[in-house]
Prior knowledge:
Blueprint: H1 15-36, E1 42-46, H2 69-94, E2 99-103, H3 112-115, H4 140-152, E3 161-166, E4 171-176, H5 186-200
Parallel strand pairs: 1-2, 2-3
Antiparallel strand pairs: 3-4
Helix pairs in contact: 1-2, 1-5, 2-5
Amino acid sequence: MAPPTRMTTADGFELQFGSNFLGPFALTMRLLPLVLAAPAPRVVTMSSGVASYGRIRFDDLQWQRGYRPNLAYAQSKLADLMMTLHLADLATRHGWHLMSNAAHPGFTRTNLQTAGASLGREAPKRTPFNSLHILPSQEVGPGTEPLLYAAADAGAANGGYYGPSRWFGLVGPTTTVRPPRRARDAATAARLWAEAERLTGAALPAGASPSSQR
């Protein structure tokens, strides 16, 4: 989350885009045949409230020009949510017995807000993420509840998005959240999905084709 300078994965992807989105995408594609063979399969993706101000920069997905730590993080989390909704749509169109949904933890107090901002530095640097102590926040236990709801609750739905219900989604009991408008752009999501397939070399396997699920 928000490394102060642009860093890359071993594959050369911008660290946040590669770790937060492309890695989970590739893992999901490779596991999908096994997932679809389960009695009640779910694919649950962790997004973030900052996805609401994310942008998918197709002209510079890897932030090679003008790297902005927080905006790069927001892009990766918007991409996660778009992957969730596109997979949910694929499940519906192909008749798969699969639930794809997502969650976000609100403002949960972990080292995420400081550890990423310290990458490459000897000491943490003050950032917007570790100076927001005036905002409502919650412990790790409540922060995990939206993800657990998405993964295990009978009330969760395909294409659902879950997060805290109070203080603009920062804290509180789990509720259904409306994905931001950009996440609901089906054409952009399909384009991002195709680009993720190209970048990772991972695509819907033959074992996940509609005919194999009949």
